[in-house]
Write a structure and sequence with these properties.
The chain has 317 residues and is α/β, with parallel strands linked by helices. 44% of the residues lie in helices and 16% in strands. The protein has twelve helices and 16 strands. The protein has helices at residues 14-24, 41-45, 57-66, 80-85, 87-108, 141-160, 186-196, 215-227, 248-256, 270-278, 286-292, 300-314, and strands at 4-7, 29-33, 49-51, 71-74, 111-113, 116-117, 128-130, 164-165, 167-169, 171-173, 200-202, 210-214, 239-240, 244-246, 264-266, 282-283. It has a six-stranded parallel sheet with strand order 3-2-1-4-5-8, with helices on both faces. Strand 1 (4-7), helix 1 and strand 2 (29-33) form a beta-alpha-beta unit. Helix 1 packs across helix 8 (215-227), helix 3 packs parallel to helix 5 and helix 7 (186-196) crosses helix 12. The longest helix is centred in the first third of the chain and has 22 residues, at 87-108. The chain starts with a strand and ends with a helix. The structure holds 2-amino-3-ketobutyric acid.
């Protein structure tokens, strides 16, 4: 049995992770939300929900006490492009919020998962096969909060024995909840355009490679890392994980294998393009594979088949 608090439960990852945790564990899986982003439908009806704003330490502590929470999934964050426009808010949520979570976890003995990202690397990290341990000097506020979050989480593990763990997520692709404000969002939006029969305007230039992952693999990673045997973990915050890397031409070509008249034109967004160019092309995830048995199940082909099928059903196409 596990009692889990998911902070940011109505976001892109949270909405699916909360439901998966409810299917896998018998305890209370609490959907933490902020005002204006309340859970609806199955998420609201299938388990407890509570207002938990990550910037409000009292709300976090109350939820943890009330539900005897042993594990916190901290999914509150502004994605990379939005964070560049609101850097102070990105820091407030990403770091002041994280300190709140870590302090409650220290006092109440909770384990904590806080995702990092490919965005924690900057232009001077090796671009291909980016190693687990290498230079992390991001040029974005999103990346600054991710690197700081990794260091802070490791600090709480070493200094106070808080069981903090994390993975560096690639761009996540899902047909359930849209991301919003990320640099990798185009790889979700392209499927919507293809299924709707629209011409896709791509904000990222041809030849720009980034790591991507299908949501079912990402959810499994978030659960498996928290269940991993701690004695086998040499790293904690945060593990490189990878499953596929492509540029806009490759994903468009893959979609055309299924929808031959799909059209894409380029309308490059300078902000997103500069962020994408500062990120790795492809991470090396050997340490995750060796330390806790990480293995992705989806590649571009199997993800594309599933995305097109599920989206066609959802959009009635
Ligand atoms: C973003 O694009 O900001 C995120 C990420 C890669 O962390 N999807």
């Amino acid at each position: 049995m596990k009692n889990v608090l998911v902070i940011g439960s109505t976001g892109q990852i949270g909405s699916e992770l909360t439901m998966k945790l409810r299917h896998e564990y018998t305890g209370d899986i609490v959907a933490g939300y902020i005002r204006g982003a309340e859970p609806h439908g199955e998420l609201a009806e299938s388990g407890p929900a509570m207002e938990v704003d990550i910037t409000n330490a009292t709300q976090i502590a109350e939820a943890v006490e009330h539900y005897h929470v042993d594990t916190i999934y901290n999914l509150a964050a502004l994605l990379s492009a939005v964070a560049e426009n609101k850097p102070q808010l990105a820091w407030h949520i990403g770091i002041d919020g994280l300190i709140n979570v870590l302090e409650v976890a220290r006092e109440k003995h909770c384990a904590v998962f806080t995702p990092s990202s490919i965005g924690s690397f900057g232009p001077n990290a090796p671009k291909d096969g980016t190693p687990q341990d290498t230079i992390q000097q991001p040029r974005t506020m999103y990346g600054v909060t991710k690197v700081t979050g990794e260091l802070l989480s490791n600090y709480y593990a070493l200094k106070f024995g808080v069981d903090t763990r994390s993975v560096r997520f690639p761009g996540l692709i899902s047909y359930v909840t849209s991301p919003g404000g990320g640099t990798t969002d185009y790889a979700v939006d392209i499927y919507y355009s293809a299924v709707k029969g629209e011409v896709f305007k791509c904000p990222i230039a041809a030849g720009t490679f980034m790591d991507m992952m299908y949501m079912p693999d990402a959810l499994r990673a978030a659960i498996e890392i928290m269940e991993a045997d701690p004695d086998k973990l040499h790293h904690r915050n945060s593990f490189n994980i990878a499953s596929m890397s492509f540029d806009p031409e490759i994903i468009a070509g893959k979609i055309r294998e299924h929808i031959p008249d799909f059209e894409m034109v380029y309308d490059v967004d300078p902000l997103r393009q500069s962020i994408a160019e500062s990120w790795p092309n492809r991470l090396d995830d050997t340490c995750a594979r060796m330390e806790w048995g990480w293995k992705p199940e989806y590649d571009l082909e199997t993800m594309t088949i599933d995305m097109l099928d599920k989206l066609a059903r959802r959009l009635g196409k």
